[in-house]
Amino acid sequence: MVQRFLAILLILAGLGAAGYGVATATVLRGSDTVVATATPSGDGTMVVTVPGVLGMVDESVTVRASVPEGQKVTLAVGTETDVLGWVGDDPYDSVTGMADWTELSVVPGAGVTGDEAEEEGSADGEGASGSAEKPSTGPDPAGSDMWISEVSGETSVTLRYTDQPGPYVLLAAGVGKGAEAPTVELTWPRPATTPFLWPSVIGGGLLLLVGVFLLVGVRGKPGARSGRGSGKGRKPARTVREPLERRDDPAQPGAADESPFSLAPGEKPDSPFPPGPAEKSPFPLTDDDQGSPDFPPAAAPAWGSAPTPPPYGAPSEPDGDTVPRPAPAVPAAGAWSTAGSRPTALPSGPAELPGHQPPAGPPAPGSLRRRRGRRGAPDQPGAPSAAPMPAPSAPRTPVAPAPPPVAAPSQPASPASSASPGTPGKLMTRRERRLAEQAARRGNTGMQPAVAPQQPEPPQPEPPQPDTPAPSSRAAAWREAWGIKDGENS
Amino acid sequence: MRGPSSAPPVAALLAGLLSLALTGCAPGPPAPDPGPAVVGAVVTEEQERTIIGRVAASLEKATAERDPAALEARTTGPARELRASQLEVARLLADDDRVTDLPMTMQSVVLPAEPGWPRTSLAVSTSPGRGAAPVLYAFEQRLARGDYKLWAWAKLLRGETLPRFASSEAGAARVPADDEESLTMSPAQAVAAYADVLSEGADSAFADRIQDDEFRVLLREQEAAQRETDDWRASDGRYSFSARPDRDAAPRAMRVVDGGAIVMGAIDSSQLIELQECATIERRSLTETQRALHGEQRESNVLRTTFLDVVALYVPAAGSEEQVRLVGVEHVAVDVESTGDLSGCG
């Protein structure tokens, strides 16, 4: 009774655990993206991240900045030095990290004070269009030489960026009259890991198996008895007595109840699905990332193009008729080749950012998971199917859980070491005797019975196979009884 | 089975397992990892290429349109002044031949290493071909919110080998114009000294500290040729050339690997030709640039041609025995005045 209760408990717990494991990879599985929003609090018009925020979850990030309808907003990525230099003394909000998985933490930015450049303003005729005194007019960072990526637009703009080494930060600015700081939303792809899938499924499977075999152990005894005394009916008294008998003989090999435990090691070769690959996942959106719109174009064409060259012989200076040319005529091209200080010519190829592609290796987690799911599924049904088998097969094979001769070495060991209650030790010998008698009878008839030991070894290492041959001692008895020579049996 | 009694414990067990697992699967949000501190150039080669490309595009457009006003966007300092004058001359002559070719394909750059502003970078172009000299440029970003602009350029002297520049990863420090400590003379002093030797020649106090160069040779040859023209003696001709540092443009200097610096500075120089009273310097004897700048002025016996020179000097590190030397120069006439008084000549 206690055993049965324990068995049911274990089965339910095993099913529950396995079910939960599967659920973590399906219905309970985390989102494939992390979306976090920064709501500006200050009175500035700009939001700046601190280094590392853009790559906090994944190196590939999509930034969206929104301002009230109709206003202009600019997103730019640059080094922290450049961005804070550009912001200068203007108030801004600083995004310092994640408050939780959906909120970015925002604090008022520490203004860069003493920026010597700021008060000179537009002395050089360049547009410092906003300053600390007029925070309501948002200066526009668009077009600065310092940004490695930028985008401007109305109401809402989106920028995709692949984080790269260096203190790169984001500057989001509401632009124009009455501008306010934009709301910034960062979206990262997240490799949705399923760390509980396999531990739960495997652990649950083990619990299930243990429970099943406990149950089988309980049921197996009456089942075996009924098989033996076919047609004679049950003798409930036996079930009560047998545990006692078992305890009398704990070291009996082939103890039936032990096999569920020995099953666990045998199960292991199936279980270690490498969980690693499932956690990495290629995110296609990183691929096209840094082809971002306006980074190279402006530069690329102009870089290689030289302005229309006048002949060197006609220097620009006012030389000529009356006065020798003062121009530093340095025509010798050959001489220059040595003058070229270093061969470190800038590469003139199109701008390419260093590799930001994610590793292409592992397959998408989804497919892998599915495949595993399929693989995993049979395991569980497999156990139950194996479990009831002892009862029906009782007539042929004395005790199902007995390890096969060629099974994993741990299996024979563990049953021997600790025979748990419920092992019908004596039953086996009786059954053997009975079977031997049957065999002897059949042998007299010359008929060859479909006997388990003769059947080929099942490929599975799982012991609870119906066709599992008896341990060598019993097998020897079989052989002796049937006159089978060694070698035929394996 | 004896089922009913087993249900509550099983449920409790399941609930326990579930809650255990659920609590385990909610890790806190990640913290930003700022990565290692980055030292080195504050402008990457990639950015520099973008910057130079933008400057080149703007300059090319202004040149093509001969529009000095269009230079505003991407040139400043001596470069803007030089180019504006050249474009004006080109417009007057309807000819671009005298507009300096500024190839913007760079073979080498010196990037700024300091985070503040203003920022200066140098670049050396490849040779534009046809025997033309490579050009050394200085770009400057004056304010964080400003654009990089071309501040000056100078054509490298023939056979000049520039000192080794700092790597583009490390960047180079800007040398303050008044830094006397680290160099044999401060950038400002070097430019002033060079202006002095232009004016005074061998009589200059700096004559032995500044290496002679082909630019000075050319100026001397120019003077000699002027003195040998016909009627020079007969008209009592006098020739003088004077130079002084441009007050509006403090030199820009960048450190090079050997501890010295490449200094770019502007020098205002003027050539004065005086003949005896009532003689005239004929317009047809002038260069085309001078003629364009001369415009409708009346010919007279005094002609002052004002030049704006950009000089690129190598100034050795303090303690070095080396002389300051010119590595590149641009010498452009920006004004011509005919100032003689012909009132008494009938």
TrEMBL record, chain B:
Protein's name in the database: DUF8094 domain-containing protein
Pfam families: DUF8094
Keyword vocabulary terms for this entry: Signal
InterPro entries in the cross-refs: DUF8094
Superkingdom as given in the UniProt entry: Bacteria
Domain DUF8094: from-to ranges: 42-334
Organism: Myceligenerans salitolerans
Keyword Signal in record: yes
